[in-house]
Amino acid sequence: MKFAHLADCHIGGWREDKLKELGIKVFERTIDIIIERNVGFVLISGDLFDTALPSIDLIKETARILDKLRKKNISVYVIPGSHDYSASGKTMLDVLEKAGLVRNVVRFKDGKLRLTEDKTGVKITGLYGKKGGLEKEEYGDLKVEEGNGFKIFMFHTAITEFKPDGMDKMSSLGSNKLPGGFNYYAGGHVHYIFEKEFGNGKLVFPGALFPNNFKELEEFRCGGFYIVNEKLEMEYVKVNLKEVKSLKFDFSDKKVEDVERELRGIDDVKDKIVTLRLEGILEGRVSEIKFKKIFEDLYEKGAFLVLRNTNKLKSREFEEVEIDGDVENVEERVIEEHIGKIKINLDEKKLIPELMNIFEKGKEEGEKNIDFEDRLFKNVMKVFDET
């Protein structure tokens, strides 16, 4: 008996078309490897999709890939994750299940989680993940149907004792809340690669199948999944279709022309994803850097995709403001400090707070990226029209 454990595929999650397409290709390559390795069944521990209502094109492509497993009689067991779970009950996992492509193992009967038995005799169950970690409240009274043999529990929740550095504030569940008696605890949600002896078995997070953001591209370069046998012997399989070249620059006290010269000197980028993290306090304005031309040069050198992060790159004239005393009116005082530094023919005192109010509101549940961006754009334009 041998099974594959993957999680956090987040199909459709990237805004960039090339990365969205690459995410699908990574998923397909993963399925091909699973078939090549004669795996008995597959576990997907949440967030197959990045949203509960992905586009029709993404659903069709995902279904086509999963059908490869169905034709080989390899069962796929899933749980909804915090992204593809919906409180309304509307999720595309149901569509895939009705098509005979996956089996959702979150099934209750008489107040107990039922065990789903695979043709290998392995028994599987699990609990969904919810936004904000709200699923952890359901573990307190969780009861599971009894059963013998090799058993797997799937979950999509951070475990308090095993959270990686930097995730201290992430909502989590104490490991003592997990139901006992299972041989394998198949985790998802936390994007890191982790395995640990737990009870009489193992607790495992395979990480994201494909990096989900700029930081993950820098840190992991690629994703992967586990192949596990009945002896709990484990192999982590990387799925790397594009090399990532991550570069970090400190441009403190540099002029715009110095920045452009350094960035144009980047080489060895052919067919690679290039990430540029730019930091420091610049002698000049960030807006004056000709990023479009720099990117064009990198693409001429054969780069697959170029991404930049300039969150910590600032102009000296916009250096951080030190504020003494209480912080009740920090925003107002920062606005006062910088007002007038950019010449525009609008009432900045009215404009800036209204724009801040718009941008602090995130996506609504189930709202697609394109609809969120359209709503944001319309609200911003309305403010400009009224100012």
Short description:
With 387 residues, this protein is an alpha/beta fold. 28% of the residues lie in helices and 24% in strands.
Describe, in plain words, how this protein is organized in 3D.
By secondary structure, this protein is of the alpha/beta class. It has two domains: 2-239, Metallo-dependent phosphatases (Purple Acid Phosphatase, chain A, domain 2, 4-Layer Sandwich); 244-386, no CATH class. 28% of the residues lie in helices and 24% in strands. The protein has nine helices and 19 strands. The protein has a six-stranded mixed β-sheet with strand order 4-3-2-1-15-16. It has a six-stranded mixed β-sheet with strand order 7-8-9-12-14-13, with no helix packed on it. Helix 6 (291-300) links the parallel strand 18 (273-282) and strand 19. Helix 1 (17-36) packs parallel to helix 2 (56-71). The longest helix is centred in the N-terminal third of the chain and has 20 residues, at 17-36. The chain is globular. The N and C termini lie far apart (67 Å). 32% of the residues are buried.
